[in-house]
Amino acid sequence: MSATRRLTTALLACLIIAPVQAWGPLGHSVVAELAQRHLSPAAEAEVERLLAPDHTHSLADIASWPDQIQDDPAQAALWKQTRPLHYIDFRTGDCNYTPPRDCKDGQCVVAGLQHYVAVLGDRSQSDAARLEALKFVVHFAGDIHQPLHAGSRDDKGGNTYQVQFEGKGTNLHRVWDSGLLKTRGLDWQAYAQRLDAQGPVSMPLPIVPLDNPYAQWAEESCRITAETGFYPADHKISQAYVDAELPVAEMRLREGGRRLAEVLNLTLE
Predict the structure, then answer these.
(1) Which of 17, 80, 117, 153 is deepest in the core (most CB within 10 A)?
(2) Could you list the pLDDT tens digit for every one of the 269 residues in the chain?
(3) Which long-range contacts (CB under 8 A, 24 or more apart) does 205-212 make?
(4) Cut 0.70: pTM above it
(5) 103 falls within a domain
(6) How far apart, in whole angstroms, are the C-alpha atoms of residue 60 and residue 29?
(7) Domain assignment present for 71
(8) b/e per residue, 74-91, with b = 16+ CB within 10 A?
């Protein structure tokens, strides 16, 4: 069995094991830290080796880099190339992944993860290429678990759905990127500790007939956005909305961290 097939099979099995910018810097750092806490010794050693040129050993430190390059003129070409890989637009309301329709020419987060996981696991690649791949894998694993990075409405992932939140005008995407999480008043270290202390997360059941774990993660996110009440009808983010949706956001962080750890453990074994 090929390495790619073994990874896919193991990740699909992980979906039923109970032990496991989208998010703003806070959410991305939390997902990365949750993953790092559950790396195997071999994966942890390889992560530290790859991160050494960046003078860090923390996945959280590089988790937002794929967003940050948009402000770096030296990375303009890479940003243009990878920008479509941060999300997926489902073209119909059923949230069923159909690659030719939803990920044409590999331009979506599902294909982005597939590509960069393959580069990360290819020991014939340079360390620089594999480090760059690691940064994208960590980031895209967060992105794909943010529901509005995989929606089906024609509102640019909630960016054009205006809402009132904490007395100010904003949009639903920004609320899910950072607004909901910030209501906890925690930094990323404390937030990760809070979520990790809840113990192993029960993973969602496989979605038949999918045989692509990354597509499953995207479909899960899409289906969350389709649930009644996700889009507040009165365009107001009330305390009741926060009480209902913050646990959903936190579960996606936990699932993202669990799955990212599994990807890195399998890829860097």
Answers:
(1) 117
(2) 555 555 555 454 444 333 325 689 999 999 999 999 999 999 999 999 999 999 999 999 999 999 999 999 999 999 999 999 999 999 877 899 999 999 999 999 999 999 999 999 999 999 999 999 999 999 999 999 999 999 988 899 999 999 999 999 999 999 999 999 999 999 999 999 999 999 999 888 888 778 899 999 999 999 999 999 999 999 999 999 999 999 999 999 999 999 999 999 999 98
(3) 205/15, 205/16, 206/12, 206/15, 206/16, 210/97, 211/8, 211/12, 212/8, 212/97, 212/110, 212/114
(4) yes
(5) yes
(6) 4
(7) no
(8) ebeeebeebebbbbbbbe
DSSP notation for 13-47: HHTT------S-HHHHHHHHHHHHTT--HHHHHHH
- What is the CATH classification number for the domain harbouring 117? 1.10.575.10
Q: Is residue 72 part of a domain?
A: no
151 part of a folded domain: yes
Domain count within the chain: 1
Question: From CA 220, how far away is CA 129, in angstroms rounded?
Answer: 30
